[in-house]
Structure formats: C-alpha cells, structure tokens
Amino acid sequence: MDRLPWAKWHWVVVIGLGTVWILDGLEVTIIGSIGGRLTEDGAGVGLTTGDIGLAATIYIIGACVGALFFGYLTDRLGRKKLFLMTLALYLAATVATAFSMNPLWFFVCRFFTGAGIGGEYAAINSAIDELIPARVRGRVDLIINGSYWLGAAFGALLAIPLLNEDLFSANLGWRLAFGLGAVFGLVILLVRRNVPESPRWMFIHGRAEEADKLVAGIEQEVEKETGKELPAADTYIKVRTRHSIGFGQIVHAMVRLYPKRSILGLSLFIGQAFLYNAVFFTQALVLKEFFGVADNRAPLYIIPLAIGSFVGPLVLGRLFDTIGRRVMVSACYIGSGVLLIVTALMFRGGSLSATSLTVCWCVIFFVASAGASAAYLTVSEIFPMETRALAIAFYYAVGTGLGGAIGPLLFAKLVDTGKESQVAMGYFLGAGLMIAAGLVEIFLGVEAAGRSLEDVTRPLSEMDDEGGTDADDTRGPGEGDKDARENRAAREGGDGDDAPNGRDEDIETVTWTPTGSSTSQTAARGPAAKPGMTGRPDALRRRRRR
What we know:
The longest helix has 33 residues, at 259-291. The protein has helices at 8-18, 20-33, 35-38, 49-77, 79-98, 103-131, 137-146, 148-162, 173-192, 199-204, 208-226, 247-257, 259-291, 298-316, 319-322, 325-348, 354-381, 388-416, 420-444, 453-456, 481-492; strands at 237-241, 462-463, 508-512, 542-544. It has two domains: 1-230, Up-down Bundle (Growth Hormone, Chain: A), CATH 1.20.1250.20; 247-449, Growth Hormone, Chain: A, CATH 1.20.1250.20. The protein is mainly α. The chain has a four-stranded antiparallel β-sheet with strand order 2-1-3-4, with no helix packed on it.
C-alpha cells in the first residue's frame, strides 16, 4: 500500500472515513450553542443550566467508554466492521436525541452518541493510517483530524438560524439541529460501505488470500487510472498469523514493551485535551463575564477560532512529512504553549477586547491544532499493528477523561471568581502542560515520517527466517534491549487466547511481501526478498506450528 501513487481510491478512503470528525465537531458545538435554548420552558425537554454541563460530561464519559470498548473490538474483529458499527450507533443515538422529551432520555442519548464518536476515533485512525501511503500519511492524518473544526464552524453557523424563533419554534429548532447531523452521518455511512478492510489486519489475522485479492484489485485500479505499472516488491517480513490476539498480550505490549512511548502518548493527549476542552467549553463564559458578549452572539466568536484550528493542520500538515514528526510535534506544542503564556499576560493586564482575545485564540489554535492532530497520528504509528486501535482508544480516553473533565470544571470555577488574574492562572497551567508535552516529544519522540508502519514498530507476530523472532524490535529512541527481550517473550507467549490450552494449533507462519503485489500489507524494510518469496498466495511459504 505504501508504494501506491495517490489515486481516486484514496479519496474514497478519506471521504468515507475522515469526514466523520466533522460530525464530532458539529455535536460539541451544537450542544454548546443551543444550551441556553434547551433550558427554556418552551424547549420541551425540561433541562436546567446545571443539566447542560452534566450532559457535556456524560457525552465525554460515553466517548471514553466507547473508545476503549470499540477500540478492543477493532483490533479483534477488524477495522471495517467497527467503523460501520460505531457510525450506526452515532446515527441512532443522534436521531433519538432529537425526540427527547425529558432529561433522562436526553442524557442516555448523549452517552450513546459519545460512545459512537469515541469508537470512531479508534476504528478510523487505525484504518486510515493502514490504508494511506507512508509518504503522505502525516499530512493526510492531520487534515482529517483537523476537519473536526469544520464541523465546529458549521455547528456555530447552523445554530444562528435554528435559534431564531421567527423561523422555528423553541421546541423545534434544536431538534432539527440534531436531525441534520444524522442526515450528514447517513451520507457518510453510504460512502463508507465502499471502504475495504485493512489488508494489514486481514493478513495478521490469518486471512492472507482475502488480503491478496483485495490489494490486487486496488493495484489494478490504480494502474488503470495512472497508466503506469507499479514497481516490483523487493522486501518481505514473516509473521505468525493468528485468528485472535489476547487482551493481555495487547496491554502488555502497550505498557511493558513500550513504556517510554506510553509516556509520550499520555503527555501529548493530556496536554492537548486540557487546552482545547478548557478553552472551548468556557469561551462563551469568558466572553460574557469579562467582555459582556451576549449568549446569542457567542457562536460568532467560535467560528473564527474553528477556522484557525482547521487551517493550521491544512497549512502545516505537509511539514510533518518533510521536516519530520519530532521537530514539528514539539514545535507545535511548545510554540502554542508560549503563545498561550503571552495571551494570558495580556488578558491579566486588561489589554485585550473580545475581538483581540479571539484573534489570539486563532493564532494559538492555528499552531496547537496541528500538534493536537499529530497526537492521534503519533500513537497510531508507534505501537504494533495488533495493538494500534486499542492504543489510540486508551490514550484518547485517558487524555479526554482528564483534560475533558478537569479542564472545563477548573476554568468554570476560575471564571466565576470574576478575576482576570485567576483565569490567567488556568491559562498558565494549560501552557505548562503543552510545553511539557513538547519537551517529552523532543526526548522520547519516534521519527516516523515517510516510513512504513512496520518499520516504525514491528508487528508482535513477526518472525525471522528461521522461524524464531527478531532480536531488534524497535525503531527509534524510547526502547532498549530489555524491551526487545520482553517483546520476544510476548510473541512466543501470549495470554492463552491464541488457542485452547495456550497452544498455537491454528497459527500459520506466512511470508509477507510488504511492498509487493501479493498481500501488500506495506512495510518498506527487511532483508531483500529471496527467490520465490513474492507473488500470489501459491508463492507464499507456510508451515504449521505446533
């Protein structure tokens, strides 16, 4: 897959999978923009002001639970099954929200809406990174994750006419907002049906022939479109395929084999989640308390912030593939932290207006959004294929759980004091977390620009030519010989889920031509291919392990 030129097929993947982040941005912005309307007597749902904050918390909890639950299933059952299932859950819950008649129904719907979106983060990011060529993986991933802010801007714009009682009654406008989100999601679901399963996942889970047919079809489609023959494969890796991989082995790989990479993932996610959730969920409060901005005008200030957050990944994304991950991620995190400190000082000194503060946020989030999007890119690249979806889910859940819960609550209390100096202290804390995460990236970051996923981190199932496991299990800083020895032990061991009585009775040893035209689960590394090691399934070398 890595050697394929960009083609129409890749656009199907991007549109079918990537546009779902627009839905997440739409959901978060809609609930923030229409929160005031939902508390009115004529809204027909009976929510209080406190219930709006509770609904946001329930949505975040649902997203964290959904990410972990569906993340595990994504690694076990496959990418496609889950990215169809999670979107279907989102659609059902969103439609149900539009018919809410009481707070309990509304809360339950928000939980399952969040669960669907949280599951999307694991299923979609893992699938995209396994289907997009390595040379453009950085910019594509950043732009896709940054599209969240297109949904945020659209949600803010949508709220303006829907909250106008000259056009829609108080009991109807907010329901239409959720209904329109469901319609958009249905269109995405129809496109997504054409996106295939990840060949990488299929191969490692014992479905080599299916993976071969899938990639062969993609290659033929790309060759027909470009009129050029694809270069021949010249590398291979060998893996022990298995139909399932135990949960214990997945957790062991994330926590024990790659502890420094785990620290990196947590640092990046907690920093960006605290900054974004703290600022975004309390922006309207800050504008109202310190600048007298009316509630119905708050969405107008969200739109430029959202635009800046999307343009950042769009403009800076290509640099993550050219200059490199470590330099760009650390620069974005540290740079946004420094800009936030400057903004906090000006805010505390009373030298900002509502407009100038919004301009400052636009500049900060232009830089920070690229770094925040790169957090998802990073954790999807630096862990083994077998653990990719669960790794994304885990760090998303922890980062969102801490940043999404603590940040807004802390900032709301700081705003309630009515003192600029207190709010500035919260900004300083957010800046410190971002700068700290940037420093962690400098020392523990793994350079993955332009490299296949298997080159960055070898699959847990990989073996050497003699049927054993490789000694060198890592690529980049952060791991050493101890981790390599443990990785070998993990490959040979497992947690008993692989086969009855812990035996590998149904595990095959399959030679995989990662950049070739056989199964093409792309990984541009390994020793030069030996004669007879490439080609179609009949040329794949297999043997049973007992």
